[in-house]
Amino acid sequence: MSLNIIANVHDLNSAQETWFIQNVLFSGAPISIGFDPGLLSNQTIVYLELNEISADLIQHLRLANSKIVLYHMGDEHGAMSRVQYRNCDLVIRNYYFSEALLDADNTGVMWAPCGFKTGVGPRLKRNLKSASERNWLASFLGWMHNPQSYHGERKDFSNATEKCSNNLFLLSSAGFAQGWNVGLYAIAMESSIFAPCPAGNAPETIRLYDALELGCIPISLSHEFLLSNDALALIGPVPFPVLGSWAELPQFLEVMKAKTLSNPTEIMELQQRCINWWSDYKIAIQKKISDRIEAL
Fold this sequence. Notes:
Blueprint: E1 3-7, H1 9-14, H2 18-25, E2 31-33, E3 44-49, H3 55-63, E4 67-72, E5 90-93, E6 108-111, E7 136-143, H4 153-161, E8 168-173, H5 182-190, E9 192-196, H6 206-213, E10 217-221, H7 224-227, E11 242-243, H8 249-262, H9 264-294
Parallel strand pairs: 1-2, 1-3, 3-4, 4-5, 5-6, 7-8, 7-9, 9-10, 10-11
């Protein structure tokens, strides 16, 4: 069966990672707006859903004799209904919750990364700036004061930034996806060696993948999705720094600043490990998804 992605206009307009989904996760499969059973019957359909899952659409796909791969986005808190998972042949979802990956009525459920924003990437490895070519040690452009952030990470991060002095270029915005366009955001990140990635509404953030795609060295706290073999540890431990708390950030950046002067090769080698790991990971997750779909 051929593979096609379907989604509604709202979700395609709202999703920030469409290029990554289409070309990395699903190997360049075509995307259709809406579902036409006359054109898309007897196929494997990736149903992309950003909000609540449509039972009616799943039923129409069944009647069209199609295999159903649900790509469930946007469930940052793990609170959306998963009842319809059992009516799909395969479920792929963002935002790692181990309980959500348990099989429901013999339906496979797997995790995939959110991926980078369209416009931030795709980037070619050979064109990424080396650490020695970057103007800033670290930068953060985004919503500092998200009151809903996971375990209050944004507040802790905000408190830590006050002690980072010139080691961190900082531009705060008024809310999610507000204030700074993709161009400015990408320029700042690709001009920085390090990119702190505090949790947003969920531990997993698009910022992490933006940083990796732009050749930055992400900085994170420890989270389950970083450690699980079902998530980012698919090909081994993540290569970037993982702090115990954001209170460690000012001292960490001071140490890294000193290393850029005393041992720049160490920083460049760490950057290259992150670049290579991310390149290998994209290949591995694409193959994992392809193999699961082929087995349907």
